[in-house]
Amino acid sequence: ESIPCVGSCRHEETERRNKKEATCVEDGYTGDEYCVICDTLLTRGSVIEKTGHRWDDGKVTIEATKEKEGVITYTCTVCHETYEKTYKAENQQPQQPQKPQGGASGTPGQQPKLPSAGEIWTDTETGGNYIVLSINGSVKTVEYAGPIDKDIRTVSIPDTVNIGGISCKVISIAKNAFKNCKKLTKAVVGSNIETIGSGAFMGCTRLKSVTIGKNVKKIGAKAFYGDKKLAKIYIKTSKLKSKKVGSKAFAKIYRKATVKVPKKKLKAYKTLLIKKGIGRKASIKK
């Protein structure tokens, strides 16, 4: 739900508040969008349905005999809750029931729950949380919401991710996704990413190297603000325009940083990057 603009503020810098991740058993919340300048509520968030447990393949914890049933114990790979199911001996081999795929809820053997738009999905394989953008139609898309582990040291945003058995393109990085990840040193932005949100890597004080993928069209305000050790930036995209790069996107990074850009964009990007905060002592080259 959008809130009408008030006053003369243009709401150029925003942040999401009251955000809560969905867990296996509790609903989450996408968060409310506020202007950081005038503190106006711009957009109210929505409830994110709980994801449900993701059961592993199960482990035989009690062997079955001809006289006694055995037990298979399943463990949720996210919250580590366990579920037990009995089985009967058949030639002394357990017959394991089929486990659910992806983010299915309930007990093993149930059909998986398909994700819905707005839902946050945790993927342990890539170590990230994703917001489902579109799950219908020919193109399925998600936004990288942030890492599972805030102490992550390196990250490579994938081109695609498996959400509930569905392959989805990862097309954006959310606002503040890696904000204040103090141990992050290297980040590679996937080739399907089109938008890097405001403050996405702000305050990553140990970040040294960033690769910006070939399809990035928009970089939000203060996306890399305050990354004082960021000394190497590799920009592969040729799609950046001054109006699509937010203010101070590269401000207060390492003042002698080296930035490599596409040959045909060298002149234009020199002007753009300096305008968006890169120090004049930085080396911008093809």
What is the residue-mean pLDDT, rounded to a whole number?
Answer: 84
Structural category is mainly beta
Helical fraction: under 10%
Strand content: 25-35%
Order of helices and strands: EEEEEEEEEEEEEEEEEEEEHE
Q: Which stretches are poorly predicted, pLDDT < 50 over at least 5 residues?
A: 91-106
Radius of gyration, in angstroms, nearest whole number: 23 Å
Oligomer: single chain
Supply the number of helical segments.
1
Number of strand segments? 21
- State the major sheet: 7 strands, mixed
Shape: elongated
| Cα distance spanning the termini | 44 Å
3D structure, described in words:
This protein is mostly beta strands and 286 residues long. It is 3% helix and 30% strand. The chain has 1 helix and 21 strands. The strands form 5 sheets. Strands 9, 10, 11, 13, 14, 16 and 18 form a 7-stranded mixed β-sheet that branches. A 6-stranded parallel β-sheet has the order 12-15-17-19-20-21, with helices on one face. A hairpin with a 7-residue loop joins β6 and β7. The protein is elongated. The two termini are 44 Å apart.
